[in-house]
Amino acid sequence: MKIFLCLPNQPPTEEARVVYRYLQSLGAIVYTNDRTLQPTSVSISFDKIDTLFILARTENKEAGYLSALALAQKRPIVYLLPKGNALPEELDYIRQNSDVNKYLIIKFYDDKNWQNRIGEALETIERGDKRWDAPSIKFTWRLTPRIDRYLRWRTSGTQLTKADWLRDYIVKEIIDKDHNYQQFLRHE
Asked: What is the domain class of 2-127 according to CATH?
């Protein structure tokens, strides 16, 4: 998984260093806007990033711009906020717009549970959110009459189309249960 970690424009705190190293220890490739954590200039396009993590203990001026880039690429945004902090103003538009708020994951943390909150966010991203998975790739598949009869029988009395049922079945019964593929996703 490739993560862009957005940190406030100030010398990184020990907390920022720990989060950066923790994400790396989970096997993620981590890019950041902080030159002290990533001294070599790395040019990475947001279409190559899986998610944007924003550590928002203090005001983060780059967060709004990077959030817009992530949303343009339909990438999830994880906002890590200390418990008790107010939501930043740049989240108001995202939270009010139903087309883009589905990409926003807000996690409040404290000193004891920050690793769990990061883990929860990563699990949501790795498993995918149904709101992110709008079918967009056309795939033509010729079926036998027997398969078509089965699909009609299976979907009769439900609100699902044959295609929706097949998509759900592939995710639940094939993708989620394929241990090799799940391991591949963790190390990608």
From this structure: alpha beta
